[in-house]
Amino acid sequence: MVPVRTRTADTIKPAAVRDYTQNMGGVDHSVQMISYHPLHRKTVKYWEKLAFHLMTLVMVQSHILYNEHRRSHRKKTMQLQKFVMSVCRSLASIPEDQQAPPQPHDLNRLVERHFPSPIVVDDKKMQRACVVCYARAISGGDNHKTQKSKRKVTQFECSKCNKALCVHPCFEIFHTKEHYA
Question: Which residues form the PiggyBac transposable element-derived protein 4 C-terminal zinc-finger domain (predicted)?
Fold first, then answer.
């Protein structure tokens, strides 16, 4: 037991507790930074969760070291999000001055005119899984067995998008909501 001075009074605490509180700064700072910009993805496979966590941890630790190096040379530090983007750009060999990536053509579905039509291949009516029903099953965190029971098969598709959609309500949802899942 060792005496410890707190803001309000002098107390006695175990030496291990005092050592932990004095030296915990780096670990807590790292965990705090991970919580601000999580790279975690929803997945059932444990090894994917572990891989994403390790990638996040490596990025945060390298960001801390990078900023320490910058401070030692009296240069301006970089925010974590900008650091991660610069690392990704350099790995993908995309120039820094390039603007944000262009919006996908998928968003044209929100402004253009679209009509349902039957799915026909070689003069035969076909069936495919509805894109919206499938996306909703995936975003709900369902596993493979429950996805099959929840997804719906349809004979209709959007004539412009070539996406299989239930006529009601999925066709309207797909063409009016940016995030239809």
Answer: 114-175
User: d(Cα 60, Cα 161) in Å, to the nearest integer?
Assistant: 40
Q: Are 33 and 63 in contact (CB under 8 A)?
A: yes
Calculate ∠ Cα 23-29-30, nearest 5°: 110
Q: How far apart are the first and last CA of the chain?
A: 57
Contact status, residue 166 vs residue 132, Cβ threshold 8 Å:
yes
Torsion of CA 161, 167, 172, 177, to 10 degrees: -60
Q: Which residue has the higher pLDDT, 141 or 129?
A: 129
Q: Residue 104: which of 12, 178, 3, 14 has the closest Cα? A: 178
**All structural domains of the chain with their residue ranges:** 2-92, 105-176
Contact 160, 105 (CB under 8 A): no
The stretches of 37-151 forming alpha helices (DSSP H) are 46-72, 80-92, 131-139, 144-150
What is the reported pTM? Answer: 0.41
Exposed, middle or buried, 161 (CB in 10 Å: 0-12/13-18/19+)?
Answer: middle
Residues 6+ apart with CB under 8 A from 47: none
Q: How far apart are CA 6 and CA 16, in angstroms?
A: 16
Q: What distance in Å separates the CA atoms of residue 181 and residue 100, rounded to the nearest whole number?
A: 24
Amino acid letter, 127:
Q
User: Residues 6 or more apart from 61 whose CB is under 8 A from it?
Assistant: 30
